[in-house]
Amino acid sequence: MIDITSLLSDEHDANHIKIEVKGRDLLEFGKSLINQSYQEFKNHFPVPFYEEYLTRKEVTIILKISLSTLWYWKKRGILTPIRIGNKIRYRRSDIEKCLISSQKED
């Protein structure tokens, strides 16, 4: 079976070609066009990533640790907080990485 796209790529030939197509092949071609368009759309308009920032209290609840353990982890570089104005926050993605790495160690 010849790929319709490659067959019609030459503009001069495309004007003089008459094509007989089975319904199944036409549906397949339509699906491939949709998939190609979707991929191009995704590349031009990527989904924005929104990071969630957590307070120290929220982190201690999620990780089931004390505030002093969180402070110790900060000093050792296990979890690195960020400052937003005068507030200290932790990235949710960093917390999830910490949880995943602790599960791998178990």
From TrEMBL:
SUPFAM superfamilies: Putative DNA-binding domain
Domain Helix-turn-helix span(s) in chain numbering: 53-97
Keywords: DNA-binding
Single GO MF annotation: DNA binding
Alphabetized InterPro entries for the sequence: DNA-bd_dom_put_sf, HTH_17
A Pfam entry, by short name: HTH_17
Protein name: DNA-binding protein
Organism, scientific name: Ancylomarina euxinus
